[in-house]
Specification:
Elements: E1 8-12, H1 17-28, E2 32-37, H2 40-54, E3 58-62, H3 68-82, E4 87-90, H4 106-133, E5 139-146, H5 157-177, E6 182-189, H6 207-215, H7 229-239, H8 244-248, E7 252-255
Parallel strand pairs: 1-2, 1-4, 2-3, 4-5, 5-6, 6-7
Helix pairs in contact: 1-7, 3-4, 4-5
Keywords: NADP
Pfam family, one: adh_short
GO molecular function: oxidoreductase activity, acting on the CH-OH group of donors, NAD or NADP as acceptor; quinone binding
Length: 262
Amino acid sequence: MVSAQGKTVIVTGAAGGLGKAIADGFLAAGANVVVCDINPQRIAVVEEGWKATYAGKFLTQQTDVTDETAVQKLFDFALAKFGRVDVLVNNAGIMDDFGPVGTCSKELWDRVLNINLNGPYLTSKIAVNLFEKQEPVGGLIINIGSNASAYGFKSGVAYTVSKAGVMALTKNTAGFYGPKGIYSIALLLGGMDGTNITDAFATGIHTEMFQQVSKSQTPYEPGKTTVPLASVAKYCVFLSDDDIAPNANGSCIFFNKNWPEA
């Protein structure tokens, strides 16, 4: 297993689901981990679960990633405890209701774009400015993208646009900051079980759109077409390796168990 000993990692949306699995992976690899989430109850559960094994190696903070002041406080919090930040994992995100453009409400559009795209923009902005100033200079941003980053018909319009934007943010950041030792990579993930993203379906989905998307691809089968959360976490730790990160800079890597088929 790749070691992340001595590195400090910030993971957003990490008090459950995929973010929690990524944080677990970095902790197991020896990193200091700072996790944030909007949900204080989930944060409390994470603290309780980690305190015996990882005391002194982690911090938690309730943070709204769409609030620049709150995000700055998160980074300041990490710096005060661990002295630097080496890796940012932009995991926080929400799903839409599979609505096409004609039925997507402005409220839902704004909410999805704000969390899924404005959030990574704000955290990346603060991260790269820190990475440029700290000694030694450098750092890595891992953006959690989706099949919807590259395929136009895998979700509703809001989620599709937000994740396509994440891929563009990744590439633009990689192009400008790569020569400075600051790298940006995206993982374009497929279906996963055990994430919090399906919370969005609690109020219902656009049935016609969902059915059309489903008919356009091999059927979703839990355990067969889905990527294990722990496997995503291992990949994130691998990408943080000092040799791998610069060579993967700008990459937007499908990690989707070939679902839908390439």
